UniProtKB/TrEMBL annotation:
Any one Pfam family match given in the protein's UniProt record, by short name: DsbD_2
UniProt cross-references to InterPro entries, sorted A to Z: UreH-like_TM_dom (IPR039447)
Natural source organism: Thiohalobacter thiocyanaticus
Superkingdom: Bacteria
Signal sequence bounds: none
Protein name from the UniProt record: Sulfite exporter TauE/SafE family protein
Spans traversing the lipid bilayer: 59-80, 87-109, 139-162, 174-195
Keyword Repeat: no
Domain Urease accessory protein UreH-like transmembrane: 9-200
Keyword field: Membrane, Transmembrane, Transmembrane helix
Keyword Transmembrane helix among UniProt keywords: yes
């Protein structure tokens, strides 16, 4: 069974993997935020339902994948001696936690290679996401988030491999839920910042352009 300690560990992996999330998903978050309706971009509170829906769909995909991997581990336990299978799964989980710690610390990047495993699948899924742009409603954003959740990511795939130690579909789903919730603060913050910047840039006289125009006029006066 999934212990509370494992759930917390999965949450911390997602939370501490924020730097990785910025590098991996920053461009996607920015594109989604820039694609919001103009009226929504100009009101920070109006952006929140869309951002929550994006991430809710993404975490939903994580949970489904975790359930599938946990189901595989449950099948293995039925085929093998229960005690032997539990011991193997516990050793596997402990070893994999050490590898993920090294990965997050940047001391060993071997887990990044697992991203290539999902690249072929993503080639078929990614066009579906492009067809859903631009986003018009939170429900629309949720569906797009479901697709986003299958983006090839070494950190996500590493936690998925960890769910093989869960012992059941439900426990695998809970492990991925903990991880997904850990990634939520960083990606929500990125979405708010990106949407705010897009709102300023798209204004009739946006701050960035206004500042650039002011500098240009000052230079002309000095000349």
């Amino acid at each position: 069974m999934l212990s509370e300690a494992n759930f917390i560990a999965a949450f911390l992996v997602g939370l501490l993997g924020g730097v990785h999330c910025v590098g991996m998903c920053g461009g996607i978050v920015g594109a989604l935020s820039f694609g919001l309706p103009e009226a929504t971009r100009q009101r920070p509170l109006a952006q929140l339902p869309y951002l929550v829906a994006y991430n809710g769909g993404r975490i939903g995909s994580y949970v489904m994948a975790g359930a599938a991997m946990g189901g595989i581990s449950a099948l293995a336990m039925h085929l093998l001696d229960v005690r032997q299978a539990q011991l193997v799964l516990q050793l596997f989980a402990g070893g994999f936690l050490i590898l993920m710690g090294l990965y997050l610390a940047g001391w060993w990047l071997g887990l990044a290679r697992v991203e290539g495993l999902g690249a072929r699948l993503w080639r078929h899924i990614e066009p579906l996401g492009r067809r859903l742009l631009p986003v018009s409603t939170p429900a629309h954003a949720f569906v797009l988030g479901l697709i986003w959740g299958w983006l090839p990511c070494g950190l996500v795939y590493s936690v998925l491999i960890w769910t093989l130690s869960a012992g059941s579909a439900g426990q695998g789903a809970l492990l991925m839920l903990g991880f997904g919730l850990g990634t939520l603060p960083n990606l929500l913050l990125m979405g708010v910042i990106a949407a705010r910047m897009s709102g300023q840039w798209m204004e009739p006289e946006p701050g960035f352009r206004r500042a650039a125009r002011g500098r240009s006029m000052n230079r002309q006066r000095r000349a």
